[in-house]
């Protein structure tokens, strides 16, 4: 470089080729074979091309020899002295030497140290038809661009160069590697780059073509950073991007066409298979037509029975199963079988001969139905008139279903309507059990809904529990597996008739239990409890009230009558009856017995005897255990010698104390109200006095006192139930109803089952009457 000092050692080993201005003729001679010549060899591969190429090379050698001789004379002239350079300009108009002298040139090589140029200008022939700068082709005489990697490496490493024989083949530069289309696509695929799309940039005075938006301002940036020939580099980069975009588009189209070829090949194979299949179908259809024609001839001659006809169609179905099903040939089979089947079942009594024709129908079920399930649409909910098609969306039913409806169902309908008696369900149940697998679901449902249920409803309406000797559950419950929830409309009239029949019933009659207990699992829990509360509980409560507890001579029949219902009655109703009708008198008898210095062994045996009469379900109930514990406490007090507390005494004392306290508070309130009334009369007149009197009267009566007065007016017993509390409130007995009074909320709560609901006083009277044996109004 001009700024570097000349290295003397390098100068001695320098090639004898001088720099510019120091005798440039030495660098001339035979021109080495250019790099692009190898490419020219590939351009003329034929014999005629070789002759053209040899003639061109011969002319080129002649021109080189002429140039070499001329340069040799110039070299000998310029080598004599360096100061004679440009001497010829004195005789011309050139001012080149004068300009150099003005800038300080004194002769010799150029540069600060007269070292000349680093690399002599070399001539390199471009390939034919190649433009300047195409495909990064570099002219041999042009030095590398400043700032590039090549120039930086040369600046760092300055090595002495020996004279090279560039014209030798082994000293030629290696052929540059080019990226093929396949390699480019592979690189794009590895990088995951999407296909390049062309973008038109119309922001400037001229339209620019871009392939992406990443290098949108690359040209301006290159100019600002002093990149050599930025326009040319931009254009070259654009050409490369467009070529890459074309390659990717062509590749995408090629792949699309290949996929289309694959799809068309698959379609061709499918069509070939379809052709073979349809050809096979035609052959099968011809065979089926021949077979059906033979069957038709044999039926016309009268030589085929139902069994032989079924076997013939089974053979056709086995050989050509798919075609038999596809063309619905079961309809043709039905047309042959229906007349013969109707003749077979003519005059048939299904309740007397349920096995008649069952084997033949099994054969035809396999022919007409195959492996299809018995799950067709049900019939419309109308009378069976013969218009069966309306149950299948306007079309005809399946072939086997139509065969059953036309041949089997008419005799069944006639027998059910005319001869079957609902109180004898066994014949009809036996027929349905044998034919259940052969009857389609729609036919079976139609028989149950349109034939069986109407007959059962008529029988229930005519049933009288007081006159019938056979219980109703004996001929109704066998239909539960088949009818199920369809029998719900029958339950309400049955409960009504049972309730009427139990009005005159006495607990000593055990037939009521045998009549009602089978219905516990059939009726819903609410209806079952309502029936027992209305018809059974009041009668059992009366039996407990009539029971006399006498340790000397005890009659246990009334108690056993009640305990017989323990398995069907809800547990809370049983506990309520024992608390109200049995345990108070039983505890009073025990109290008086313990006060008379009894034999404690006898008392213990008496206690254990009564306890053994209670079922395990009642002994596990908390309310029953509480009553038994009261008896045990009295027995313990008697054994220990302490005074025996009478059962219910503490509760009565507490009740009296509370009653006196409330009466005292009522008197105080009345006095205060009277004073307020007098003051109001003085200031508000007579109208205010009347209003004050009414308000005082309303305030004096508490809710409990109102209930007591209401109970006295309707002749209903109103007493507290000792030891029973509900949410911290005392429980009272309003006749047969347990109630609690909430004075804070001013409501009366009544126990209905396991719940406590708010009721009015009129509703209390109705509940008491219903539980006492009366009826709801």
From TrEMBL:
Domain of life from the UniProt record: Eukaryota
Protein name, UniProt field: Uncharacterized protein
Organism: Diphasiastrum complanatum
